[in-house]
């Protein structure tokens, strides 16, 4: 088992050769944990041992944020969402939900959950499935506990249903807090919806565009939100988010800052 402690975060990865011994060790770590609020694990370490994972969650009293990599298995998601604990309020699923058949069951589990307040689905790659985006936005509109969503969406095109639903949600709802957009053509109406979500609704604080078509005029309007503090993060990148995240083609901070300030 490899354990990393950083600030209030506890990152745990298993050694496959000693899986049976790792479970008791993890249990002791969590029982003794009094300060680490974030638990970062890999779903791969618990395949076939989902009941062990669920018991660890149910014995938890300190961890409030859960980060689970590679959550592409329905049994893992059941363990996360069906655990009888009120302590977990934030869920982040990096490199997860990449199998289309798992998206609908995920939405059903999310719909029934009453403890999570924040859901982070802002991964290196975005969601292209139109039906999933629509279903997710619809269920969060009626959700009793979830107040903040971080989301990465790909392939928003002019007047397609994905754009229509995103515009409607940005204008009407107040749960989209952070948004990444990739491989998209951005309309004037979509920019106005982003502006409304940030300036009027005061909920959207983070917007990044990757390999997307955005006019200079629309960039300038969004930059006005960045300049006055409504948007805490605003970026326009020619590369994919995957390249930016792994650092292979990352532009310098100076270049991004220059692009922003050129609109002032």
Automatic annotation (TrEMBL):
Q: What is this protein called?
A: Uncharacterized protein
């Amino acid at each position: 088992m490899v354990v990393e402690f950083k600030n209030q975060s506890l990152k745990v990865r298993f050694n496959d050769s000693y899986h049976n011994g790792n479970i008791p060790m993890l249990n002791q770590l969590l029982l003794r944990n009094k300060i680490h609020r974030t638990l970062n694990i890999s779903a791969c370490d618990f395949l076939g041992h989902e009941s062990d994972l669920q018991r660890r969650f149910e014995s938890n009293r300190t961890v409030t944020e859960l980060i689970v990599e590679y959550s592409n298995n329905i049994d893992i998601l059941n363990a996360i969402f069906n655990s009888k604990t009120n302590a977990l309020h934030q869920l982040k699923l990096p490199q997860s939900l990449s199998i289309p058949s798992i998206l609908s069951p995920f939405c059903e589990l999310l719909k029934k959950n009453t403890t999570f307040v924040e859901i982070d689905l802002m991964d290196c790659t975005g969601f292209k499935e139109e039906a999933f985006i629509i279903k997710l936005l619809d269920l969060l509109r009626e959700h009793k506990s979830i107040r903040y969503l971080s989301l990465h969406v790909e392939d928003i095109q002019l007047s397609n249903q994905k754009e229509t639903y995103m515009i409607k949600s940005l204008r009407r709802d107040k749960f989209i807090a952070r948004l990444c957009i990739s491989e998209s053509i951005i309309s004037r109406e979509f920019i106005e919806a982003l502006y409304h979500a940030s300036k009027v609704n005061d909920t959207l604080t983070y917007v990044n565009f990757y390999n997307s078509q955005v006019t200079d005029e629309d960039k300038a309007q969004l930059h006005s939100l960045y300049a006055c503090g409504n948007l805490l993060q605003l970026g326009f990148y020619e590369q994919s988010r995957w390249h930016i995240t792994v650092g292979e083609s990352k532009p310098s901070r100076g270049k991004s800052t220059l692009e922003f300030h050129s609109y002032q």
